[in-house]
Every structure is written in structure tokens, then in C-alpha cells.
């Protein structure tokens, strides 16, 4: 009989190995015991002590040999269980086969093995995808039923019924634990994806800033240097010197702009960032008004608000013909930031900068509102989770 049982599970082992080759790689590397929650999987073994209840009821008639054999079966099963909870995915199949053989053989010695069958069920629910998990459970229940009918000498119902209830309950735990673990992994991967998209958007913004900063100035330097060379060859020394001086002036201005752009890449706090941006606006002859509430933000939201403020202020410095700018940060029902300038807007189209800003903000569940009726105003509203 046990040769047949082993043959059934050997075939199942090969089948599951073959079908799991096509499964998602994430599910292959899940083990029931998490590194930082080992007691959560090992702790329930305390209830396996119910295995010894039949031993206590027959204490007076059991020989020393029977006692030693029952203890050896228990220790062997517990050792296999501890190995199984650390196995990943389909790798647990052979261990489950060994656990079932030990438990079935142990039923010849004691009916207490009905308790041990329940510990195999969560492994079936956790380590396999549906419908293979149900197939594994059904096979386990079938072997458990055979054990109760052919290996238990008295009261097979008292063996079968409790083991069935325990197995179904713990199998459900294994299924739900697997779904929860996969959900956590998917959430973590989604967060990593958002961070990657944010990094890409930031690199694109840096590339645009450097292009806008360097492109025009370097073109002017190249043209003026070429002109100075031609004037020198034509004998117009004074004009050549003048053009050379202008080249030097452009180079100094460009160096200053590059330093300013690079310093803007250094992450500072939101309020310090707004103060730096205010100073840039004032240097460009803008009148700046600040209305900032004191808000304690999560790091990712504070970083996003810094990015928003830099992007919008850069747009004002490049394109606005206004003179007044207001920056507001408020927390009422929602957290919001509003940056406004009174420049005239004849025709408005979303550029790459604002498109990237909108995508980054919406990835965090926030909304962006743009108003061009009077001046140019951008308002970003975050949900309460930002706090």
C-alpha cells in the first residue's frame, strides 16, 4: 500500500515540477517561514502535542518499545515540517511525500497521527498554485482516509473527522497566506516601479535644464569665437578683442548658471528649497509672497513638492513676463501647494516639463490643476496619506 502511495506522489512530484516551469518566477521563491517571522510558522507546532493524548490514555499498557517508537515518529515528523516551511515553491514536494509516509506509517502505531496530518495541509495551500494546491490537498485527504480505514484498529471516525476539519482550516490559512505574500511582493514591485519612473522623470528634467542652460550659451560662444578669429585674420584687432571679451563674459555667465543648476540637484528640505527659489526669483526682479503652513511630510511627498516647486519656478524665470509671484503651502482638508505668477498667457500648451510633473504627481494619487485665466497658477493637492 505504501509503495502505491509513494508511486502516486512520485508521479505528482514530476507533474508539479513540469507545470511549475511555466509559473511566474516570484512564486518559485516563496517559503512559508519568513526570515523575520519564523515563530509565526514554527509556533503552531505547540498544538502538535495533541499527538501524545492517545499515549496518555494507554499509558499503563504501552511497552517501552511502543513509547520510544511513538516519540521517534513525532520527532521525525517535526524535523520534516521544520525543513518544509523553509522550502520554496515546488521544492517542498518531496518533503511532503516523506511527511505523509511517516504519518501514514505512524498510524499503525498510534491514532495520534491524526493531529500531524493537519500540518501538511498549509504547505499544500501555500506552496502550490490553484488547482494544484487542491489536488495536493485531495491526495493528502485520500491517504488520510485510507490510513483511518486500514491502519487504525478502532474508531476510524474519531481519527478521520478531526483531522479533516483541521486540515481544511489550515489549508485555507496556507492559501490566504500565499495570496497575502504575493500581494505584498506586487505592492513592493509597484513601489519600485514608481521610484524608477520618478528617477527617469528627474533625469529627463535635468537633461532639459542642462540643454536649455548650455545649448544657447555654447552656441553663442562658438559663433563669437569664430567671428573673433575671422576679425583677427581680417586685421580688425580691436573688434576681435571685443568679441574675445564677450566670449569670456559668456563663459563666466555659463559657469555661474551650471553651478546654480548643479546646486539645485542637491536635495534640501522643502522650506529651505522654497527659500532658495524665492531668492532666485528676487534676483530676477520678481516680487515674491510666501504663505507656508508648518506641515510634517513623508519623505517621498516632500521630495515631490521640492521637484514641483523647482520646475514651476524655472518655468516662471524662463517664460513669464510678470512681476509678482506667490507660493502657498496649506493644510486644511487636503494638503495643497499653489504657485502663481501674474504673467500674461496668450496661448498655453503642456510642455515636457509640466507633463512630467503631472505624471509624477498623479503617480502618488494627487491632482494637478492649471489656471490661466488671470496669470498662470498651478495647484497640486495631495491626499491625507502624505502627512
Count every helix, treating DSSP H or I runs of 4 or more residues as helices: 14
Count of strand segments: 5
Shape: elongated
Low-confidence stretches: 13-25
Give the assembly state of these chains. Answer: single chain
Give the number of domains.
Answer: 2
pLDDT averaged residue by residue: 77
Radius of gyration, taken over Cα atoms and rounded to an integer in Å: 36 Å
Strand order of the largest sheet: 1-2-3-5-4
DSSP strand (E) fraction? 5-15%
Give the % helix.
Answer: 55-70%
Largest sheet: 5 strands, mixed
In angstroms, what separates the terminal alpha carbons? 64 Å
Highlighted features:
single chain; 387 residues; alpha+beta; Heat Shock Protein 90; 2 domains; five-stranded mixed β-sheet; 14 helices; 5 strands; elongated
Provide a descriptive summary of the structure in words.
The protein is of the alpha+beta class and about 375 residues long. The chain has 14 helices and 5 strands. The chain has 2 domains: about 190 residues, no CATH class; about 120 residues, Histidine kinase-like ATPase, C-terminal domain (Heat Shock Protein 90). It has a 5-stranded mixed sheet with strand order 1-2-3-5-4, with helices on one face. Helix 8 packs parallel to helix 10, helix 10 packs antiparallel against helix 11 and helix 12 runs parallel beside helix 13. About 5% of the residues have low confidence. It comes from Pseudoalteromonas citrea. InterPro entries: HATPase_C_sf, Sensor_HK_TwoCompSys, Sig_transdc_His_kin_sub3_dim/P.
